[in-house]
Amino acid sequence: MLRANPIFSNCVSRQTSCSGRAHYRDRVQTRLNACTFLFFLAVAFGPPALAQEQDNIWLGTTTAWGTASNWSLNAVPTTDHNVKIPRRANAATLSAASVARTITFLDSLTTGTASIAVGTQTLTVGTTGAPGNITVNNNGVLSVSTGTVTLSNGGSMTLNSGGSITLSGAGTINVSGDWTNDGGTFTPGTGTVVFNSTTAAQTIGGTATTQTFNSITVNKTGQTLSVGGSTTTLTLSGTLTLTAGTFAAGTATTINVAVNWSQATAATFTAGTGTVVFNGTGAQQILGTLATKVFNDLIINKSAGTLLNTAGGTTAITVGGNLTQTQGNFTPPATLNVTGGFTHTDGTLTAGTTINIGGNWTRNGGSFTSGTGTVVFNGSVGQSIGGSAGTTFNNLTMNNASGLSTD
Known about the structure:
- The protein has one helix and 42 strands.
- The longest helix is centred in the first third of the chain and has 40 residues, at 6-45.
């Protein structure tokens, strides 16, 4: 019987071991070669390209926003594109929901209009980390009928001299930045502008001294919308809806409201030293879930025979300044607090349960329906009941150490 030579066996064993080591060495070398190849590609061609913002200019061969050949990048705008709209014969007309990073209307070329027609569609501007700003310059036109334009991520609307924004129907513009009117034309139609940033304060401002909207909605929990810049008069031909956050009169000495004032419990109105005027041609209401609505000066100057009253959760109105009823009828809630005086020229005042007044009561016309209510004179200085028209009270309480007189 043959036996294996120990020396030979040891040699075979060593050869097997050497073969295993060689195989391992080859695998390592293969991986090193692959890494070297990838490194070469990275050096030669750089890392994979990331999407970057680009200018995409409207060419306007036809009116279709959604046609790639109408754009300088031969691509329909995405959220990576800063859209530029120069003056062209054809407006960029939306036929579907559309997006952009920013939009600028350019006063370039010599003919045509720099125009976007949103119509009934949705246009969303802005993306993560990039405010969706829209700038409407001279000869620029942004038109919306019942569609929606949203300026996201802190996007601001800037309307410069010679530019225009037109809401021809009940469209909506959502703004998360500022609204700046530097001499342009805003035609609000029956639309609504919504201020909705919950991360930053917002301003209605610019060089325009008077700004007119249809309806404004303030829905910005924990933040404030203020009137600023040169704007001293804010006029609403529709409704002011305060859903959440704070609305500050700021530089506005006068806020005109033609329809309703709706204020929820989560919303605050900072009146400053300004005046709110209810001047509608039809019925108006002060409503919303907030129990006590607070104003500085309050004026009722409506079409004759039309009524301003309260609804919803409104149980009291506090006027920190003066109450003036020039024309139109007014039915306050159960409690009406007036820190200053009351001047009545025309229309009917129908009392609730209690009217507290800290200044003078002056009636020169109109009528006062006292019902079963009480008028309390509670000023800190002498007060008077006067005017060219007499007043008949139901209950009258004097709570003023300085006295009450009649003129």
